[in-house]
């Protein structure tokens, strides 16, 4: 009985995680990334940071994490230390679907 419950919970978890990843459109996310994110994070999410301007690498991060952090920036829950509050200004104008698309795109990129 315990094995059946554990199996059911495990399957439910993976089904939910897959659904979150499947909702984003990586093609649209790539277009958004190229026009808005590439300057700092790089087109593929492999940011080339310097000690003067640390920029997080987005490539290969879990989509769930990326989505949560983008929502936090957009809502002001996460402090935006980027130049001119670029993260907050950009993200708050996007739809939730746009955020999911960006998350799906960056999650699918290989980290170098």
UniProtKB/TrEMBL annotation:
<dbReference type="InterPro" id="IPR008168">
    <property type="entry name" value="Cyt_C_IC"/>
</dbReference>
<keyword id="KW-0408">Iron</keyword>
<keyword id="KW-0249">Electron transport</keyword>
<keyword id="KW-0732">Signal</keyword>
<protein>
    <submittedName>
        <fullName>C-type cytochrome</fullName>
    </submittedName>
</protein>
<dbReference type="InterPro" id="IPR050597">
    <property type="entry name" value="Cytochrome_c_Oxidase_Subunit"/>
</dbReference>
<keyword id="KW-0479">Metal-binding</keyword>
<dbReference type="InterPro" id="IPR009056">
    <property type="entry name" value="Cyt_c-like_dom"/>
</dbReference>
<keyword id="KW-0349">Heme</keyword>
<feature type="signal peptide">
    <location>
        <begin position="1"/>
        <end position="22"/>
    </location>
</feature>
<keyword id="KW-0813">Transport</keyword>
<keyword id="KW-0679">Respiratory chain</keyword>
<feature type="domain" description="Cytochrome c">
    <location>
        <begin position="24"/>
        <end position="110"/>
    </location>
</feature>
<dbReference type="InterPro" id="IPR036909">
    <property type="entry name" value="Cyt_c-like_dom_sf"/>
</dbReference>
<dbReference type="Pfam" id="PF00034">
    <property type="entry name" value="Cytochrom_C"/>
</dbReference>
